[in-house]
Predict the structure.
Amino acid sequence: MRRWFQALAIGVGLATAFASGANAQNPSSLDRILKEKKLRVTAEVTAPPFGMIDAKGQPDGSEVATARQLAKDLGVDVDFIQVTGPQRIPTLLSGRADIAISSLSMTIDRAKVVMFASPHGALSIVIAAPASVDIKDAKGMSGKRIGITRATLEEATVPKIAPPDARIVLFDDIAATIQALLSGQVDAAGFSAFTSKSVADRNPDKKLEDKFTVTTAYYAAALRPGDHDLLHFVNTWVALRTRDGTLGQIYEKYTGVKLVPLPPL
Amino acid sequence: MRYVFQFGVVADHWPALVAGALATLRLSLLAMAFGLAIAILCAFLRRGAPRPIALAVATYVEIIRNTPLLVQLFIIYFSLPGLGIRLEAEEAAVLGLSLNLGGYATEILRAGLDAIPKGQIEAGRALGLTRLQIFRLIMLFPALRIVYPALASQFVILLLGSSIVSAISAPELTGVTNTLQSTTFRAFEFYFVATGLYLLMAIAVRLALDGIQWLVFVRGRAW
């Protein structure tokens, strides 16, 4: 009899712990961030100009600067979680980061698992290759090796338009894809236009050029499903900071290009 | 934070995962074979060859054992093309894994060779055998028997360490898992299943190695 009561007590105790644990984990992120005075943001530092490491070894780039601006406006400190491309969304979903500001292009598949805020930037994906490689459009990729980084917009779009005999070679981060293109391990590679330009500028002897544009997209901050308070704050913040030009300035400083008019979400 | 597990997504992509696991096994077995061959050669050269060659082997072993496998793979895959040697990702992976295993296995085998009683070697010399014959007929087999557990462990480490070659786009289980989780956003489910597959493969390899040990070293035991 006593054993039975003990088991019941433990069971009830665990059940309440789980229930209250589940509830305790769901106070609004915004309240928790303001209370702890810390905003945890993902930083993809191998994706110039959105994220990179500056001369002092600190994260820098347009998305990093955007995150810093957001933290400043919230009045909290920012904590950067350095991630590679494929880790951006898992890091957000697992709770290690509160918000993912790492040039996540808005796609329907991603929208099924995260909540996107209003877009605050735009990018285009191009196929880049040395001048000696002859590719004029998607059909020109036939029989060639195309380097693509996992978990990026190029991974979501290029394989769909590539001819069946094109070989898609996948790498875990943009740096490896860049290396593959420069060392000749792939004939061409898919990047954002900004990355392609920065790689071409730093390696003039390779004579890299953009062969054609695959797609253009808006990118936005991403939040966990259900995190509505923080989402609404970020949407309001994006609207206000776009209107007063702050976000446009950050974008132009790092990309060298004026920010196009952004649609609200 | 509530998370809804969806293992059904993993089931949809099961064939790709199995193909990845088979690729991992293939890479590992090739690297085991080549790596062991390298180790036997290098262990012999380290003991019996003229000084410069022994020194070169020692240098190779120390470089391999004191640098990360990932860096070794990057050099083979990204840097060698600059010298005109362009290897496919799978070739680079086998080469990198074999050289890596060769370095570690050389040291393991050397310990086994050192453990051979001196009397055996002197008996061989008394019979007029050459250095190579002594190595081949008297020293190699007992040394392999002595260090077999350590070698077997190193093989399993190789199987698990083969996951690194996804960084140079060689096809294997971790690379396939990474691709699938990045397109379906089901990281937990896929990594959980991949871990299970690695566990199964490691246990299977370990059983096979134990079986080989019994067949080769115990059953027909003449030494």
